């Protein structure tokens, strides 16, 4: 019997070691050393954090495909091996969610110092952005872990491909794009209803109804001028994207862009902002930037907002399968209670969690979204699994009615950056372990 216990202890020790090594690797990556995503076994020659190489775990780098978006069609060097070992996958499956929580909490505390306010990180961003041509791979690596507030407008425009990497062309392109937006407003928005089709009239009416409902707990968004700007941006987008037209939820997706691009003109807390302090030219520039960045974001998720929203339905199915793989007790309990993932997760994918967490954390979350580029839709599955399993223990104690109420009103109102970083670090770790493994997300 004692021999059996010894063997079990030995196995647990190996498991703890593997898991903690993974977390240390993630920590290095989240400090901006390498693009979070698939980890490759390719040891760095320099020590992590300048620590003693003998005691530190190896750090790994990610290989990029030519599209720099982090999609699945990576090209690998002959000396690189994916971390998709069946042993590691099996080990991770055996980890309880409480083990993940405990280790993530320890890990998250140590990453708080790597926040975007650190002067060293600010210097790294400054160096990347000051080049004649911005290297987008490097910018994505840095942005994944958070962007300094005053650099966010520039970084987001670059990450979305709205502003060109070449600094000599940037102002010319932005000026031309902003004029194009104004022409669109003049042609399609500033016209009488008699010049619109019935569908266009109904679409505009729905947008007008939805704008006051957008981020209702942030007083700034209740200003009439803010709602008018939202209305113009959404109507212009819907007219220019007839395959989907306006879909409820897209109004939420404009709000992070609006607050970020307004921050170039308005100072202090959003609670004290007023659109009346801006010139019409400044408002037009902000609206144009929001319109183009929204368009770029949704270009990568076109089937999320077409009829029946098949893209979202597909990702909800993947989320259900991933949760089953990571935390089988939660998956089984939700299924036993008769709750469908579509009933709560559809809104998460539709609004990208904007309605689920405090608004002051949204821009930090979106730094990671935009850094993922074209790989974002698939990575959302991991973020949302991590988000859901934050409450693993709670969920298993609730019946159907209680589950529905709890998931519609998640207790995130007091969340800080620390809770969000924990969600992102777990998501990255699970993505590294599970993504592309042979039995992963079987349909």
UniProtKB/TrEMBL annotation:
Keywords: GTPase activation. It comes from Arachis hypogaea. GO terms for molecular function: GTPase activator activity. This is Rab-GAP TBC domain-containing protein. Residues 34-82 are annotated as: Disordered. Residues 146-373 form the Rab-GAP TBC domain. Transmembrane segments: none annotated. It comes from the Eukaryota. InterPro entries: Rab-GAP-TBC_dom (IPR000195), Rab-GAP_TBC_sf (IPR035969). Residues 50-74 have a biased composition (Polar residues).
């Amino acid at each position: 019997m004692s021999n059996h216990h010894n063997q079990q202890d030995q196995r647990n020790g190996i498991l703890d070691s593997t898991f903690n090594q993974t977390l240390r690797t993630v920590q290095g990556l989240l400090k901006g050393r390498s693009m979070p995503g698939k980890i490759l076994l390719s040891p760095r020659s320099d020590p992590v954090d300048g620590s003693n190489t003998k005691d530190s775990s190896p750090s790994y780098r990610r290989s990029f495909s030519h599209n720099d978006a982090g999609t699945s069609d990576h090209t690998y060097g002959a000396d690189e091996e994916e971390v998709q070992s069946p042993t590691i996958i099996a080990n991770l499956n055996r980890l309880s969610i409480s083990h993940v929580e405990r280790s993530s909490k320890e890990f998250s505390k140590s990453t708080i110092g790597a926040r975007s306010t650190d002067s060293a990180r600010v210097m790294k961003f400054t160096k990347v952005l000051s080049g004649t041509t911005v290297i987008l791979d490097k910018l994505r690596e840095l942005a994944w872990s958070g962007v300094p507030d005053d650099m966010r407008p520039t970084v987001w425009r670059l990450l979305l491909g709205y502003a060109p990497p070449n600094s000599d062309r940037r102002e010319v392109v932005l000026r031309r794009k902003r004029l194009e937006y104004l022409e669109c407003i003049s042609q399609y928005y500033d016209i009488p209803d008699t010049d619109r089709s019935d569908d266009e009239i109904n679409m505009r009416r729905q947008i007008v109804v939805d704008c006051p409902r957008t981020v209702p707990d942030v007083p700034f968004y209740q200003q009439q001028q803010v709602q008018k700007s939202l209305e113009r941006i959404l109507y212009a987008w819907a007219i220019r994207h007839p395959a989907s037209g306006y879909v409820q939820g897209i109004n939420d997706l404009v709000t992070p862009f609006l607050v970020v691009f307004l921050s170039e003109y308005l100072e202090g807390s959003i609670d004290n902002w007023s659109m009346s302090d801006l010139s019409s030219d400044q408002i037009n520039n902000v609206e144009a930037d929001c319109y183009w960045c929204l368009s770029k974001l949704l270009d990568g998720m076109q089937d999320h907002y077409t009829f029946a929203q098949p893209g979202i339905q597909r990702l909800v199915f993947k989320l259900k399968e991933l949760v089953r793989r990571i935390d089988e007790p939660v998956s089984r309990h939700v299924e036993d209670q008769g709750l469908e993932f579509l009933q709560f997760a559809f809104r998460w994918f539709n609004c990208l969690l904007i309605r689920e967490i405090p608004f002051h954390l949204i821009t930090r979350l979106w730094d990671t979204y935009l850094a993922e580029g074209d790989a974002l839709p698939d990575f959302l599955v991991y973020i949302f699994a991590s988000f859901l399993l934050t409450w693993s223990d709670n969920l298993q104690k609730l019946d159907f009615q209680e589950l529905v109420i709890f998931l519609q009103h998640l207790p995130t109102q007091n969340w800080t950056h620390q809770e969000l970083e924990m969600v992102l670090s777990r998501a990255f770790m699970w993505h590294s372990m599970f993504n592309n493994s042979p039995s992963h997300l079987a349909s």
